[in-house]
Amino acid sequence: MKKFLLLTIAALPLVCSAEQAPAQKKAAKTTVAAAKKGSPAVQQASIPADAVKVGENSYSKTDAQGKTWIYTKTPFGITKIEQGAANQAPAAAQPSGLTAVDAGENVRFSKPSPFGVQTWTRNKNELTEEERAAWDHQKQAQAK
């Protein structure tokens, strides 16, 4: 039994390498076949030679249309993002279901969660941005 396990363990790398070899050959054949058919090859984004370095792995370049592009080196390749799109952040929206109730020096918040209603209180001087937005929204609703 021990000899069988020893032989199985010793043969395992050989079996694994044999399975990988045909897959690599097949991928190479597919690439060659696609090139012969005249299909457009996928091009990797590259950093232009005249791009200006703006960070450790970031470069900037303005194209002929006047758009500024940010090129970033990542572990998965080079990304290309328009500068305006990179700087835009989504507006902070009112959290759905978050309610605020005045409790003297504190504000009592509650919001629905998958495990029931979550409730907490916080001092008015220590509110987070999300809580302050909900509190301001609640005050405006009461004023109307």
Features:
flat; 144 residues; alpha+beta; 4-stranded antiparallel sheet; 7 strands; 3 helices; 39% helix; 3-stranded antiparallel sheet
How would you characterize the overall build of this protein?
The protein is of the alpha+beta class. Among the domains are: 35 residues; 45 residues, no CATH class. The protein contains 3 helices and 7 strands. The strands form 2 sheets. It has a 4-stranded antiparallel beta sheet with strand order 1-2-3-4. The mean pLDDT is 77.
Largest sheet: 4 strands, antiparallel
Report low-confidence residues grouped into runs of 5 or more: none
How many beta-strand elements?
A: 7
Tell me the span between the first and last alpha carbons: 84 Å
- Return the string of H and E elements: HEEEEHEEEH
Going across the biggest sheet, name each strand in turn. 1-2-3-4
Which value, in Å, is the CA radius of gyration?
Answer: 29 Å
Strand content: 25-35%
Q: Mean of residue pLDDT?
A: 77
